[in-house]
Each structure stands twice: as structure tokens, then as C-alpha cells.
């Protein structure tokens, strides 16, 4: 029996495609929610979970910034997926017949030019691939879907147009989660690394500025900084951070020593290899893995 990797969404979604790219030959397990994907790993139903965390156009993925700090799972890998959308309809229909386009709200927002040009009415669906399934079930030539290319084959739909996204650089960053395990040492992870962690600042003036100063003075590149409320307080006291480096690097050791002076809690979420996309961030197109 093949090992399993869980994801949120329906078969044919971008998360499903990311699973197939990162773990070919594994069973990809669809889950109704991110919490269910996390639970699949915790319960042993799946060895890993594939979770989208950021999109280059839409920004952070809702709920994930709050779920990650609370989970007992650990980030062990990252993956950058170029996002491509196709316009799909039922067999025998034509694009001229289309009146409504169904998809996830982010997909609709990322394909505005096509929607405007065709004069379609956007209708929000819970999932990109799910909208393709629904269009197939409705069998209505006036309804089309914006979905990943894989969904056309899965649900027996015709492709009216490919690569219809407004921005060809559209990319989603995913993280791969596993059960807690020892953080890999620098010897085990000799190449470029990313460290993800959360911290809570002390209630003193300029605490965040001072807490982050050590990373600047030690030349560490910070690629993500998210704030969120804790315990219903209307104050951004908890922060989630990604930095490029390994905790055993001398520069990181000094930065974390300074961080400890101004925080009441620091917890490592994961230390993992940097995806090649980070090394080619100046390229015009994302690197496909």
C-alpha cells in the first residue's frame, strides 16, 4: 500500500497537483478542510499534509496563519507551484453559449480579464476543482468553470481556453507537514535552508522593532512576517516568521539570542530545505519541480 499525503480540496485542485508533483506515486487524500488535512496526519491516516500558505497575487491563505502556530505538526518541506487556470465547459458546448463562470473567489479574481472580455457573470464556488465537477454534473452549456488543467480530464470537460490567468507569474507556496520529529541538524541539511517559527513579544515599547533587529544586524533575510491576535486580545502580540538560514548558523544563533531578550515565547515550526524557486526568484517564471 502506497503512503498517503493529505490535502484540502477536491481531486483536480492545485493542492492535488502539488501533491502529485512532490510525492509522485503516493496516494493523495482529499479533505474537506485544512483541519481535516492536519487531522489525517495526526491520526496516522496520512504521513504528510500539503498546505497552501501564500499566493503571489492573493496573499496569505485564510486561516492557515492561525492554524499553523497551534498545530503539533512540523513543516518539513516547501513547494512553489505555478498556478494555471483553464476555462472548462461541457462537451459539445461552445464558449459563446457561456453566461456564468464558477470557481473559487481567488481564481475568479486572478482571471478578471477573461471574465470581462467574455461578459461572464462570476459565481463563487468553494473550490476550483469542485466548480468543474459541478459544471459537469449540471450539464448546462451556459455554465463554465475556471479550474486547473487536471480537472478537465478528471470530470470529462472540454477546454475552451488554457492559461487564462491575468498574471503568468502567479505562484502559490505550499508547506509539507509531518508529525513532530527532531529538527534536522546543519550536517543533515547542508544546503540553503528555511526556518519557520512563532514568537510572542514582551509588552514593552518598540518590542517588535528590537526583537527583529538581530536578524537585520546579522544579515539574515526575512521572507515572511505575519501577526495575529491571541486570546481575543485586540493587539498583534504573536508573530509568525520565515527566515533564510539554519538555527545552527552563527548568524542565526546571534539573532535568536537577541530575539530572546524581547520575547516571552519562541517556538520552531520547522527547519527545511529551501525550494529552488527561492534561488531563482529573479527569473521571469517560477521553477517547476
What Rg do the Cα atoms give? 21 Å
Beta-strand residue percentage = 25-35%
CATH top level class name of the largest domain: Alpha Beta
Number of domains as seen in the coordinates = 3
Discrete helix count: 10
| Main sheet attributes: strand count, strand direction, barrel closure | 6 strands, mixed
Protein name: Prephenate dehydratase
Organism: Arthrobacter sulfonylureivorans
EC number: 4.2.1.51
GO molecular function, one term: prephenate dehydratase activity
Descriptors:
disordered C terminus; 15 strands; EC 4.2.1.51; D-Maltodextrin-Binding Protein, domain 2; six-stranded mixed β-sheet; 32% strand; Alpha-Beta Plaits; alpha/beta; 289 residues; lyase; five-stranded mixed β-sheet
Amino acid at each position: 500500500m502506497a503512503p498517503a499525503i493529505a490535502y484540502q480540496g477536491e481531486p483536480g485542485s492545485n493542492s492535488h497537483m502539488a501533491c502529485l508533483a512532490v510525492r509522485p506515486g503516493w496516494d493523495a487524500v482529499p479533505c474537506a478542510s485544512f483541519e481535516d488535512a492536519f487531522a489525517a496526519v495526526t491520526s496516522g491516516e496520512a504521513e504528510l499534509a500539503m498546505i497552501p500558505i501564500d499566493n503571489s497575487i492573493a496573499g496569505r491563505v485564510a486561516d492557515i496563519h492561525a492554524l499553523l502556530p497551534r498545530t503539533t505538526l512540523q513543516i518539513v518541506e516547501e513547494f512553489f507551484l505555478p498556478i494555471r487556470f483553464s476555462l472548462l465547459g461541457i462537451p459539445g458546448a461552445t464558449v459563446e453559449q457561456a453566461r456564468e463562470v464558477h470557481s473559487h473567489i481567488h481564481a475568479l479574481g486572478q482571471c478578471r480579464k477573461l471574465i470581462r472580455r467574455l461578459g461572464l457573470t462570476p459565481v463563487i464556488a468553494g473550490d476550483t476543482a469542485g466548480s468543474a465537477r459541478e459544471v459537469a454534473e449540471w450539464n448546462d452549456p451556459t455554465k463554465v468553470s475556471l479550474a486547473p488543467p487536471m480537472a478537465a480530464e478528471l470530470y470529462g470537460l472540454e477546454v475552451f481556453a488554457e492559461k487564462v490567468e491575468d498574471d503568468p507569474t502567479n505562484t502559490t507556496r505550499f508547506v509539507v507537514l509531518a508529525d513532530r520529529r527532531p529538527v534536522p541538524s546543519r550536517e543533515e541539511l547542508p544546503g540553503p535552508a528555511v526556518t519557520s517559527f512563532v514568537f510572542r513579544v514582551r509588552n514593552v515599547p518598540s518590542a517588535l522593532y528590537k526583537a527583529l533587529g538581530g536578524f537585520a544586524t546579522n544579515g539574515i533575510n526575512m521572507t515572511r512576517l505575519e501577526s495575529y491576535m491571541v486570546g481575543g486580545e485586540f493587539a498583534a502580540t504573536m508573530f509568525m516568521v520565515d527566515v533564510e538560514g539554519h538555527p545552527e548558523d552563527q548568524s542565526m544563533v546571534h539573532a535568536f539570542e537577541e530575539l530572546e531578550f524581547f520575547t516571552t515565547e519562541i517556538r520552531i515550526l520547522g527547519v527545511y530545505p529551501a525550494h529552488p524557486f527561492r534561488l531563482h526568484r529573479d527569473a521571469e517564471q517560477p521553477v517547476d519541480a
